Amino acid sequence: MRLDRMGGPDMAPHTPQRSSRPGGAGALLGIAGLVVVLVAACMVPLLGGYYIHVFALVLTNVILAASLRPSLTCGQLNIGHSAFMCVGAYTSALLAKHYALPFELTLLSGALLATVVGMVVGYPALRLRGVYFAMVTVAFVEVIRLVAAIWVPLTRGNSGLSAIPKPNLLGMTLTTRASQYYLVLGLAAVTLFVLWKLEQSRLGLTWKSIGMADGLAQSLGVNIAREKLTAFMVGCFFAGVAGAFYAHFIRFLFPPEFGFLVATNILVYNFVGGRGHFVGPIVGAVFLSLLSEPFRGSAYETIFFSIAMLLTILFLPGGIITLPGKLAGLRWGRTASAPTPSPAA
To answer: How many independent structural domains does the chain possess?
Structure first.
């Protein structure tokens, strides 16, 4: 029987519809991955004291790496992030030790002072570009380190500031390592959420436009100096948060801990993980912190970071986050190049 094309709805030609399954599957995989990561992070205290200590430091590095991203997004090579961590650490430690203030106030005070210092330094320095700005940040790291080492009556200098109180949250002292780990897990979650919302906002789009073409952004009416300073101050605030927790977790501060090598490590986390995606610094911080743990505190740690950076530049210019895409591309290329069998006669 022959069907007429205009014969009605039952006889209308079938038009294939675009499936939304790939996008939905990607979103479901992302949510599932996030749930797995959160569950795994919450179960770390079950592994024992050593692993609690290691993963608490890993989460501190995650905060530091993610907080540097706003400046890098604006195209500013900031190699001075450890200086603002130092400001937050010493501020929180001294307020808690000498004035017995609760951790909430000392944490906020350290973060705010780091932000103010960042504003004072960033206002003139952010008018520089490229290597000149990087040189200023390197010099600032050394200035802060020398101030902490020389100001002996306040910081105890190179003898180290010891007996820092444990974090006191909502009137309760977090005496166990597990409770302190959950504290930094919460701080990392809040930090990442705030930074992610900022990046997805109009402000984040402005930062990206400045990083891609600041001259074009300025021609469209963007205040380049103000936006760069805002990104710089946001990073300084969360670096101060990381420093404040570090002070109360380790309970001993030593000026060389916040030197140039720490600042470069924070930068390497971003480049090795991948600057092209928000998850990049997180992946880089977790990956490098765990792999470098056997070398921590030795000269081999610097060698390890140098080799990791070199290999990333040579083989993964986009960072570790591009590795799945490259592997999928290789697999697709092999599938496409495979000969197809000819149909049987």
So the answer is: 1
